[in-house]
Specification:
- By secondary structure, the protein is mainly β.
- 0% of the residues lie in helices and 47% in strands.
- It has strands at residues 3-7, 10-13, 18-25, 34-39, 46-51, 58-60, 68-73, 78-83, 92-98, 115-116, 120-125.
- Strands 2, 4, 5, 6, 9, 10 and 11 form a seven-stranded mixed β-sheet that branches. A four-stranded antiparallel β-sheet has the order 1-3-8-7, with no helix packed on it.
- It is globular and about 40 Å long.
Length: 126
């Protein structure tokens, strides 16, 4: 079992930045790929970014490539999502996620993840 908790969300003006953090507990964090997703009202959950277990490779959705950066600190059991150039279309609940099994490739769909945080609201005003 693993527990995930997001933090760092809130209200920001268009063009601004936020950094989301996800704290993981319950197992050997450094052995697992991690991902960030979001879900806006009336829309499906959307993959944003994923990072390999050692942190050497990242995957991004086209909608956030060049604006968002995923990183991790295995010494702190933390994964981050730096979000720049935010716009109102980025308004959503943001989730971090972890797969069921260690190692493996970075997952880019929600079906590849077993554990989810409760989510945190990000609101971008125009």
């Amino acid at each position: 079992q693993v527990q995930l908790v997001e933090s760092g969300g809130g209200l920001v003006q268009a063009g601004g930045s936020l950094r989301l953090s996800c704290t993981a507990s319950g197992r050997t964090f450094s052995s697992y790929t991690m991902g960030w997703f979001r879900q806006a009202p009336g829309k499906e959950r959307e993959f944003l970014a994923g990072i390999s277990w050692i942190g050497g490779s990242q995957e991004y959705a086209d909608s956030v490539k060049g604006r968002f950066t995923i990183s991790r600190d295995n010494t702190k059991n933390m994964v981050y999502l730096q979000m720049n150039s935010l716009n109102p279309e980025d308004t959503a609940v943001y989730y971090c996620a972890a797969p069921k099994r260690p190692y493996g490739s970075t997952k880019t769909t929600s079906s590849g993840y077993e554990y989810w945080g409760p989510g945190i609201q990000v609101t971008v005003s125009s």
